[in-house]
Write a structure and sequence with these properties.
This is SapC family protein. By secondary structure, this protein is α+β, with helices and mostly antiparallel strands. Helices cover 34% and strands 21% of the residues. It is built from eight helices and 15 strands. The strands form six sheets. It has a three-stranded antiparallel sheet, covered by helices on one side. A three-stranded antiparallel sheet has the order 10-2-11, with no helix packed on it. A hairpin with a 2-residue loop joins strand 13 (173-176) and strand 14 (179-181). The longest helix is centred in the middle third of the chain and has 29 residues, at 134-162. The protein is globular and about 60 Å long. The relative contact order is 0.18.
């Protein structure tokens, strides 16, 4: 359950925010939603796939963190074991809500039931004079990037879908000793279709700034090998 309320200095000035990541903090996720503007940073660590949103049925871009629904192979004793943390995780437990009276304005909301919040330890949200802390400002920046990226993301998947560049993919992971994984509901770039696109379509993708993302996303599937290494390392540590 979530309990989002508008963030207020007077109401929430004593709250502190966890400085790390962990399963107990809600980070045990096998895949997280991301936006296309993150692709250049994401491909250094994560396989990227499309999946269908259960809420809208539309395609959305996601970064795979593990092979099971609640398996995050990037969590470590020190927090997050990768150079880039997806925006969706960096902004937790905050969100934005569009103002009903002023559609161009957003309200900053905080989930008071989040395990990331405490009165005892963590980063402060506000300085004593009411100014947002550096941590809170970083979260606001992440949310702004998400809001902007979400609009771009909707157009990105619509354009690719219209060109037939999204296709289902059967990802079968064999870890040996009879251990296999087959994450369901994944879609990827249709590379054969991409190769056959007419010049006009390729030019349009380039003009929109999408062509580079398409190639980067297609190549990111190779990061599954990175996840397999992480998975086997985790299995070995449990046996030792």
């Amino acid at each position: 359950m979530v309990n989002f309320v508008p963030l207020s200095f007077e109401e929430h000035k004593r709250l502190r925010l966890a400085t790390s990541y962990g399963v107990a903090l809600g980070d045990g996720l096998g895949m997280v939603s991301v936006v296309p503007t993150e692709i250049p940073a994401l491909i250094t660590s994560y396989p990227l796939f499309f999946r269908r949103s259960p809420a809208t049925g539309r395609y959305e871009l996601g970064a795979m963190l593990g092979f099971e629904a609640e398996e995050n192979l990037f969590l470590s004793d020190d927090g997050w074991d990768a150079s880039y943390v997806p925006l969706t995780l960096r902004r937790a437990p905050f969100a934005v809500q569009q103002s009903a009276s002023s559609p161009d304005r957003n309200s900053l909301m905080i989930d008071l039931d989040s395990p990331r919040l405490s009165l005892a330890t963590g980063d402060v949200l506000f300085f004593s004079d009411g100014r947002p802390s550096e941590r809170l400002q970083a979260i606001v920046d992440a949310l702004e990037a998400l809001v902007k990226g979400a609009g771009i993301g909707r157009d990105y998947v619509d354009v690719l879908d219209a060109l037939g560049l999204i296709e289902p993919v059967d990802v079968r992971i064999d870890l040996g000793n009879g251990v296999t994984h087959n994450p369901p509901g994944l879609f990827t770039i249709a590379q054969s279709r991409l190769t056959d696109l007419p010049d006009a379509a390729l030019t349009d993708l380039h003009r929109r700034g999408y062509l580079g993302w398409v190639y980067q996303q297609a190549a990111s599937v190779g990061q599954i090998a990175n996840l397999i290494l992480r998975k086997n390392r985790a299995r070995a540590s449990r046996v030792a």
